[in-house]
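[SOLVED] Need 3D model of a two-part complex

Original post:
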Amino acid sequence: DGGITQSPKYLFRKEGQNVTLSCEQNLNHDAMYWYRQDPGQGLRLIYYSQIVNDFQKGDIAEGYSVSREKKESFPLTVTSAQKNPTAFYLCASRGPGTANQPQHFGDGTRLSIL
Amino acid sequence: QKEVEQNSGPLSVPEGAIASLNCTYSDRGSQSFFWYRQYSGKSPELIMSIYSNGDKEDGRFTAQLNKASQYVSLLIRDSQPSDSATYLCAVRPYTGGFKTIFGAGTRLFVKA
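Solution:
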C-alpha cells in the first residue's frame, strides 16, 4: 500500500562526516518536504521540492543539501557544516491540486552525534 | 509574533471529559488549517482538516475555524487515555505557496 518510507530509523554521525537520510514515496505526489524537530519544538522546514529537478530552501537550510532526481525520492544530506545535527528528521509529501491538500509524513529518522 | 501559536501545555483532562485545544495564526489570508496528532517518538498523523468558517465534526473530533478572529480549535469529546499526545496546529498561509507553518504543539494528558 502507498506511503512514505524513511530510512534509516536511527543514524549516528561522526565529527566531520556527511550523512544522507532517505525518503521514498509511492503516492505519486509532486511536492516533498524535509523538516527538523527538536525536543519540545515544532517542525522547522529545511528544504522543499514542488517538482522533479527543482527544490527551494526552507527556513533552516544551512548545513543541509537535497536532490530531487526522481519524483518518488527526495534524499537529505546533513553535511559537516551542520554543527548541531542531533534531531528528529521528518519527510513529508503532498498530493496535487489545490492548497487544501494536507501533508503526510514518514516515520522519521532520529540522528545523533557519536 | 509567531506565525502559528499554541499553548504548550500540558493540558490535563480526566477520562471522558472534553479536551479543548486552541491555535491562533497571523496570516489573515490563510486558507487551509490542519490538526495533527503526534505520539511521543512518532511522526505527526493528520486527524482533521478545515477550510471554511464554522465547525467540522469527525467522530469524537470537532475542528472549529473563525477566520475573523484568526483562531482555530480542536475539541476532543469523551477523551480517552489513548488521546494523550502532542497536537500540532498547521496553517497554510496565503503567501506561503507550498509551505505549511506548524505550531509548536500542545501536550495533552488524559487521566484514567
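Edit: The two ends of chain A are 35 Å apart (CA to CA).
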